[in-house]
């Protein structure tokens, strides 16, 4: 035996196999791998979500979302600035109210003095057009029953009434446009809301304010932590007289078993004038994202939702996953499947720690 023979090498002599193609050649070094990488992720691909509350100097950690807090407007501005420094140039804002400020019709959704409208004005003053400001348009954080639309009693029980909800959503969208939003993002899943909002914005003079539609939004268990963060869980149940609303969102959000239906929603939102489309959640619906990518030329966003974030954080904290690589792999997968943009609670952390690439 040779004294310096490395262990476990193939027996000598051997002649190379005649393999016409060896995919391993392009995996030999980080530089080669980067050279042929099909997917790139930059801070400018990310949209950071924020929960905005009234008051000042307030930062309320959210138990279910480690590292995420509800922020008063002044604290929000610091985070937006930090995002800008890291290259994250878009944010989506969710307003959070106390129970005392909610009512059956969610009237505070269109309050020009509410947390979102105030945040828009102050962020616009501070950052001008450097920052893309997006707002969630939905009633669930503003209604006492926690549904995304308005209720109506019918002979079949209490339902979420599609058409009367549209006017309330449009008022909310116009309030956000007046306060300086670049894009409004309806997440309520009422039929016809994109066209209705487009009309209302145009009539109010906001022809330049765009719509990022939650085109395909599933009735998902992965929104659990968000509902804790926003206090927006649907209240309801069954009662013999049918006077309670449904306890879940399945009469308006999509059935997780359906993918083709996503193409129906895609065609509708395009026809109604949406500027960008969204799929939500992300990782469990990459097939839907892929189909939509083929069906629409519009920019496509995916929402890596609260439950997806919380699951990664929990697994990382339990020592079961390496967080950096698990987050990077998740975000790459979402882009690879066809997303141009990703809304994620990891936006600032991933940008700060260099988990993109
Ligand atoms: C409001 C809304 C929800 C989310 C975004 N907008 C919650 C819901 O539909 O219950 C979820 C976002 C997340 O889980 O991160 N309708």
UniProtKB/TrEMBL annotation:
Entry binding sites for 5-aminolevulinate 1: 227, 249
GO biological process, one term: protoporphyrinogen IX biosynthetic process
Active site: 217 (schiff-base intermediate with substrate), 280 (schiff-base intermediate with substrate)
Keyword Repressor belongs to the record: no
E.C. designation(s): 4.2.1.24
Pathways per UniProt: Porphyrin-containing compound metabolism; protoporphyrin-IX biosynthesis; coproporphyrinogen-III from 5-aminolevulinate: step 1/4
Keyword list, A-Z: Heme biosynthesis, Lyase, Magnesium, Metal-binding, Porphyrin biosynthesis, Zinc
Residues involved in 5-aminolevulinate 2 binding: 306, 345
Enzyme category, top tier: lyase
Family matches, as Pfam families: ALAD (PF00490)
Catalysis: reaction(s): 2 5-aminolevulinate = porphobilinogen + 2 H2O + H(+)
InterPro entries recorded: ALAD, ALAD_AS, Aldolase_TIM
Record-stated family: Belongs to the ALAD family.
NCBIfam families linked: PRK09283.1
Self-association and partners: Homooctamer.
Protein name as annotated: Delta-aminolevulinic acid dehydratase
Species name: Truepera radiovictrix (strain DSM 17093 / CIP 108686 / LMG 22925 / RQ-24)
């Amino acid at each position: 035996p040779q004294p310096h023979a490395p262990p476990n090498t193939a027996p000598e002599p051997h002649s190379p196999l005649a393999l016409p193609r060896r995919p391993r050649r392009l995996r030999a070094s980080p530089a080669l791998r980067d050279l042929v990488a099909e997917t790139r992720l930059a801070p400018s691909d990310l949209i950071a979500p924020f929960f905005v509350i009234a008051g000042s100097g307030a930062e309320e950690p959210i138990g279910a979302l480690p590292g995420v807090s509800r922020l008063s407007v002044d604290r929000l501005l610091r985070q937006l600035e930090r995002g800008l420094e890291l290259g994250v140039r878009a944010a989506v804002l969710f307003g959070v109210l106390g129970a005392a400020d909610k009512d059956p019709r969610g009237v505070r959704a269109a309050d020009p003095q509410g947390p979102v409208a105030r945040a828009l004005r102050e962020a616009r003053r501070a950052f001008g057009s450097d920052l893309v400001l997006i707002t969630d348009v939905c009633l669930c954080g503003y209604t006492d029953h926690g549904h995304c639309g308005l209720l109506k009693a019918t002979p079949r029980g209490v339902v979420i009434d599609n058409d009367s909800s549209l006017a309330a959503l449009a008022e909310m969208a116009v309030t956000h446009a007046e306060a300086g939003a670049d894009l409004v993002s309806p997440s309520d899943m009422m039929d016809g809301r994109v066209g209705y909002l487009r009309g209302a914005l145009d009539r109010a003079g906001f022809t330049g304010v765009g719509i990022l539609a939650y085109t395909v939004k599933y009735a998902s268990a992965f929104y659990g932590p968000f509902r804790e963060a926003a206090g927006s869980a649907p209240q309801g149940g069954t009662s013999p007289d049918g006077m309670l609303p449904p306890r879940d969102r399945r009469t308006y959000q999509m059935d997780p078993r359906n993918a083709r239906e996503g193409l129906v929603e895609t065609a509708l939102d395009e026809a109604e004038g949406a500027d960008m489309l969204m799929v939500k959640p992300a990782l469990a619906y990459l097939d839907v994202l892929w189909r939509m990518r083929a069906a629409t030329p519009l920019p496509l966003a995916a929402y890596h939702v609260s439950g997806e974030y919380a699951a990664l954080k929990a697994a990382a904290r339990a020592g079961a996953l390496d967080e950096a690589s698990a987050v990077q792999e998740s975000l790459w997968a979402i882009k690879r499947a066809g997303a141009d943009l990703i809304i994620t609670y990891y936006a600032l952390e991933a940008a700060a720690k260099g988990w993109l690439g």
